[in-house]
Design a protein that fits this description.
78% helix, 178 residues, single chain, mainly alpha
Length: 178
């Protein structure tokens, strides 16, 4: 991770530190110490997860090129399905911001599908993808995504979100049969 950060241009490193909410000043040794301190305070957070969450923050700030760069770096460092899920969600969020562009929309769908296929238990990809399919009139796809959300989110203990998707599924099923 420190090696990756040391290759960033100074302005990109500054962006990383801002989006990651890490306070660092100084050279590579200082960055390495800060990352080690962050890792000791957050033992479950891996370098891939830190890159993905940093990329997601950049996407929400509409710093999309940087968000995609962090998402791809996260995906490249991912060692577990959970890390891959987060990297794909980060990339989906970055591409979602430019959803009016067909290429970005296709990448958004690709990364949402990848996160869902890996069993991601967050709502972003399910909500946005189901809404996209419903908007396009593909109610079967929207229902399929909603069904998968009910299963995955319910199994993860997110009963409130699972209930919302159950309601959406009922509405979609009513639309397709009516």
């Amino acid at each position: 991770m420190a090696a990756l950060l040391s290759t960033l241009a100074p302005e990109d490193l500054s962006r990383f530190l801002r989006y990651a909410s890490l306070d660092v000043s100084g050279g590579p040794e200082d960055i390495s110490r800060t990352l080690q301190a962050h890792a000791s305070r957050n033992p479950e957070a891996t370098p891939s997860m830190l890159l993905a969450t940093t990329g997601s923050q950049a996407a929400f700030a509409r710093d999309l090129d940087f968000a995609r760069e962090m998402g791809m770096a996260s995906l490249n460092l991912a060692e577990t399905p959970e890390e891959e899920q987060l990297a794909h969600v980060c990339l989906a969020q970055a591409h979602f911001q430019n959803r009016r562009d067909e290429e970005s929309l296709a990448a958004f769908v690709e990364h949402c599908r990848a996160a869902i296929d890996l069993g991601h238990a967050g709502t972003f990809c399910y909500e946005r993808l189901a809404a996209l399919y419903e908007y396009r009139g593909d109610l079967e796809e929207a229902a399929g995504i909603s069904r998968r959300a009910v299963e995955t989110l319910g199994a993860a203990g997110d009963t409130r979100s699972a209930a919302r998707f159950e309601k959406r599924l009922g509405r979609l099923t009513g639309k397709s049969s009516g």
